[in-house]
Amino acid sequence: MKSANSSFRIRLIYALLILSVIVLGLLSRKTTMVPLIVGDLLYAVMMFLNIRFLFPRLSYRNTAMISLSICYLIEFFQLYNAPWIEQIRNTTLGALVLGRGFLWSDMAAYTIGTAICLLIFYKVKAFNQLKPA
Questions:
Q1: Which of 3, 6, 39, 68 is 20 to 30 A distant from 30 in Cα terms?
Q2: SS3 for the chain, per residue?
Q3: pTM for the whole thing?
Q4: What is the pLDDT of residues 5-19, one digit of tens each?
């Protein structure tokens, strides 16, 4: 069983990674040199890291399924255009969290971002298992 200190350290690492991804995502929207799909890909990475932060013992596969489902639900929710939700989407934070319009390309970006997370996490796990104790 992991100690409370180890759990705190893991969550701190995830928090720093989440903040880094948020900064990268915001910066990706400030330049035309970065394709828009990169921001959506980073959104999926952030969601994956958020789930890992909340549930660090959850399997990588389940983390991916939950985070990808959340991304998909948010994207499909963009098809709903009631006035109250549009008011929220018209704010900066609302647009960043909820998006502004449904795009199939966003679904692809979320899938790719989540797949990249899975690949990296499984590779890091395999690498750590190779290190001598």
A1: 68
A2: CCCHHHHHHHHHHHHHHHHHHHHHHHHHCCCCCCCHHHHHHHHHHHHHHHHHHHCCCCCHHHHHHHHHHHHHHHHHHCCCCCHHHHHHHCCHHHHHHHCCCCCHHHHHHHHHHHHHHHHHHHHHHHHHHHCCC
A3: 0.88
A4: 888 999 999 999 999
| Angle formed at CA 15 by CA 36 and CA 35, multiple of 5 degrees | 10
57 residue type, one letter: R
Query: Treating both helix axes as pointing N-terminal to C-terminal, what angle do 104-130 and 60-77 enclose, rounded to 10 degrees?
Result: 170
pLDDT of residue 1 exceeding 80, the answer is no
The structure tokens listed for 18 are 């989440």
Q: Kindly state the tokens that stand for 113.
A: 């971002």
